[in-house]
Structures are given as structure tokens and as C-alpha cells.
Batch of 2 targets.
Target 1
Amino acid sequence: MENDPNFPAANYQPKVLFNDPGYKHSSVAPVAPGASRPAAAVASSASAEVEASAPAKSGSSDTTLFGLIAVAAVAGYFLMNKKGGSSTAGAADYSVANEGATGVEKYLEKMGANKTGVAKYLEKQTEVPATGVSRYMAKQVVKDREAAAAKRDNG
């Protein structure tokens, strides 16, 4: 095949940029989870993995376990002692100090802007509106007073 000079990848030659002298090639190819392998390959690869990883894991897992326990102990200590730099205590102090109305609330109160329509309507009403029952009762009281006054005058 002839190389095309207009195609830049025609003369590409891969180069090794990194070499790891400690690399050990495994004869068992990685398999995706859920895929099946022959039983002999599973047994031999499992025993090789256990033998290779057991010494490495015991030292690192002890260190990791110790680190996790130390972090949990420190976190527990700080959670139990909330004296140092707790932001909730400052917020509680602020809310207790500012129990009164803010400037905006005072302004709205003075202008009457924070009142509902019902509150404004009730303020405009000078007296309690008379219902039919209340008018009837008022008339009965007037009649009773007139009757009592007539009795005193006659008797």
C-alpha cells in the first residue's frame, strides 16, 4: 500500500513513553461481572488472587482501620463538646436579642400596609352592625322599659 501524504496518520509509529519495571503480567484476562469463566480458571485465579492480596491487605487494612477509628473518635469528641465555635449558639443569641420588630416591620405598621382587608374594614366600622335579631331585641328592651315606666306611673 502506498502512503498518502495528505493523510497525517499514514506514517504513524507508536512509541512507548512509560516503562514500569515492577509490572507483572497476569495470565488471566479480566472478566466483566456476571460473565462466566470455566471452573478451573476460576479456582486457579481465585487462589492466586487470595495468595497475592492477603499479605498486602493485612498491613494496609490495619492502618486504614486505625485511621477510621481515630477520625470517628475525634468527630465524636467535637460533636459531644459543642462549646468550640458552634454556629447555632450565635444564631440563638441573635434571635433573642432582636425579638422586637425590625425597621421594615415598624414602617409597615405605621403606614398600615401590613393590615389585611378585613382588618381595615373592621377599623372603619364604628359600631357593631345591627342584625335583624339584634334590632328585634333592642325593640323588645325599649318596649319593656316603656311598659315598666307606665306601670310605675299608673300604680
Target 2
Amino acid sequence: MKKLIFKTLLLSGFSAAVISCSSDDEMSFNQEHMQTQNSKESQIAKTQTFDIRFGLLSQNGTKILSGSYDLGGFVATNTVTGDVYYTYGGSGFQSVPQYFDGLPAGTYEFSAQQGQGGWVGYGTVIGTVSDAQVDEDGYVTVYVPIAWEE
């Protein structure tokens, strides 16, 4: 009789442990976690990206898309997230235009880094990257102003 009671209690305890480990709470947490993961992945997949063409804006207002300049590269900083994207072709003289493929949609502060010689200083410009700014060549063209040059 004692063995029967012991086996019954043991079986009941084991059953309770198994049932509590597979509760609906744990399953609903896993479903919520999977839904959150899927939502994040779909947001990343839905983020539209654009190809950027960088040029310069001379001190007299002329748009420049050719030539070599004392330029280290261009920088795009997202004004909301703070994410920074660079075009870097090395130090020294670089030719324009320069390109960045796959910049996510958003508002950015665009600037340029001085080249090795330090002969030209660059300003900044704020712009929105979206479908509305895509030109006939398929780029969003950004002109970074030349602030000073020697």
C-alpha cells in the first residue's frame, strides 16, 4: 500500500512538473517574441535605400560634378539616428562625382572631409533622401558647398 501511494505521488509530482514547464504563458511569450522579431525584420526589409551621387558647390554657386579636389571623402550623418556613412577614396586629391550605394531614406547632414593638403574647406548641407529627390540618372545628387579654398 505504501508503494502504491508513493508511486501515485511520484507520478502526480512528475506530471505537475511537466505540465508547468509547458504552460501557455511560456508559449505566448515565445509567440510574442517571434512576432517582435518578424516585425523588426520586416521593418529592415521595408527600409528603402537610394544611390547617392556627391558633387561640390563652388563659392560662386556653380555645381561641380567633374574634376579633382583636395578631398578626403564625403560624409552623410542621419539627423534622427546619428548613423554615419562615408565615401572614402583615400587621402589626397579625389575626383568628383563620388558615389554611395544604398543610403537609407531619411534626413541627413552632408559634408566633406578635407584632403591631405588642407587646401579646401567644406561646409554642410541638410537634405532629405527620398523618392522625390531621385533625378533622371537614378541618383539623389548632393552638392556639398566649398566654404573656403586657397
